[in-house]
Amino acid sequence: MEPLFLTGKRTLLYPQTARKVELLDNAIFEKIQKWRMFPARWELETEDFHGKKISYRGIKYTGSPEMVFWCYFQPFFDHEIPKVLAEIEKECSNKNLPPEEFLKEAADLLKVMVSRLWKEIAKTHQILKGNGFPKVEDLRDMSGTISAAKEKIDAEVAALLLRGTPALHENNPSPEDILEIKPNVMGIGINFNAFVRWAIRKWKGI
Questions:
Q1: What's the pLDDT tens digit per position in 158-195?
Q2: Quick count: other Cβ atoms within 10 Å of Cβ 38?
Q3: How far apart are CA 172 and CA 195, in angstroms?
Q4: For residue 139, which of 153, 148, 128, 147 has the smallest C-alpha distance?
């Protein structure tokens, strides 16, 4: 099974990030293992992401069980990966750290996770399909699914990085920046530098 770690230079938050990703990896892997034990007695008791009970007894892995298997895991990835990234973004905010470097590191580790887990899901299908005796032709190519999962991770990181840009406030002076109340003849002065910056942005359509 593909190891869950990153090589090369790591950030100071990597240990915390790794623990969060490992917890999710373990949770999903346990669900894979539960399905993998299905052929032992042809019994399965589990719940889907929404808490709906899944129960099979005296039935083999064909038809309905196979269809349920391939729909079972995706919601765990779709709902839990954003939570991990959001936790890391929040941790950066609490520590007053720019989040980009740390979120991208987390994304790289999550990409390793989805790759190794979807490959294990494919191997589990192969085992179930062969009634415990896997056949080469039953091993599905998961490259498309893995690629799509990695794109979703990148999209989630991009969305998180759109939050709050401190420079935005600095580059957009408020009316108080332009009109200044200060001691002078009329009691109100004009900050011409702020006015010029504002006028240039308006002219450029910024």
A1: 999 997 544 444 445 454 455 555 555 555 555 666 66
A2: 21
A3: 11
A4: 128
Rg of the chain, C-alpha, whole Å: 26
Q: Which amino acid is at 111?
A: K
Q: How many CB atoms lie within 10 A of CB 140?
A: 17
Give the Cα separation of 102 and 13 in Å (integer): 7
CA-CA distance, 4 to 28, in Å (whole number)? 13
Distance CA 166, CA 96 (A): 12
Report phi then psi at 139, rounded to 5.
Answer: -85, 110
The full DSSP string for 113-155 is: HHHHHHHHHHHHHHHHHTTTS--GGG----HHHHHHHHHHHHH
Q: What is the spatial distance between Cα 115 and Cα 121, in angstroms, rounded to a whole number?
A: 10
